[in-house]
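Kindly inspect this chain:
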Amino acid sequence: MKKLLYAFLLSFTLFSCGTSKNYLERSDEDKALSDAVKKLSRSPSDEDAKKAVPILYNNILQNRLSKIKTLRTEKDPARWDKIIKEYQDLQEAYDAIVNNSAAFKLVNAESYNTNILEAIQAAAEEYYTNGLSFLKKGDRDNAKKAYSAFKKSEKFIPGYKDSKARIDEAYQSAIVNVIINPVQDNSFFFNSSWGNTGYNFSNEYFQQTLVRDLSGLNNRYPAKFYTDWQARRDNIQPHWVVDLNLRNIDIPFYPSQNTYRRNSSARVETGRDTSGNPVYQTVYATVNVTRSSFTARADMDVNITDVVTGKNISYRNVRDDYRWEEERATYTGDSRALSSQDWQLINNYGYGTPRKEEILSELFRKIYPQVKNNITYAVDW
């Protein structure tokens, strides 16, 4: 027991020495300074920590001030985030030292709170000034830049000048009126004997649902959405137009069929023997299964164009498929051999092959989220 205690005390001593001697050899000087200051809190006379603290603080001071000097030469206003972070790290080092009496005697530390406040003020002013400059240019792209700049100014100093009002002004300047046209069917579907029903579905449902859902996003995106007839009715001047074109739609006339069979058996009670014990018999049946299935596919082009310039804002072809499958069965043999799963297939009268309009509805339902996401991505900031 004494040997174990001795070994533990020895390992603890070696570990303590290892953690206290290598402050100056560590790559993370901020962490090394923090550990050395904490050591002085426990052991104010620790020579390794006393030696390390002034050297580490001076290194941190010189390195961070050098970074700040370099950052100040950059033109990108994003430099202010980095500058403020450097000053904050210097302030953390200062706070650690002045709150420790032993460390405070070793270092003439300097507070950087004033520098932090000055940097925040300078950042807010630069972003605000940039926002005004972008806003004066008048186009949507610069309105977006102005919006971001005023938001950054507001982030550094809430309520800075009239930044809140400028944010709203930039947002309103960036709003585009988007007209969503009806789905145009350039596929075989429109020219088939059942195409008119499907075309009415796509025209009245797909287009109007898009406008309704996109308009329900409130102020999340700087855009207002209209159907073509709403725009004509309300005399809306569009900025962008969305054209939806079915380039290809493949719906099989008849489902494919294949059949297979499986054997089923069960052990059933057929009576009692003279002693009253049950008598069992194995009975057999053959289940004949017919599987009907098809896969329908559709492609839709989503093309967003600037009405004034004719510039293509976004183009994407979206596609998806819909698979339908149904199984029915008959049997031969002893019905007692059939499982509950067999009976489900035998009694499956189903609804038959889906109508073409139902298939198109499923295809549109699967394509719809992709189309909607493509439009929201285009109008997003």
Q: What stands out?
A: The first strand starts at residue 176 and ends at 185. The radius of gyration is 38 Å. The mean pLDDT is 87.
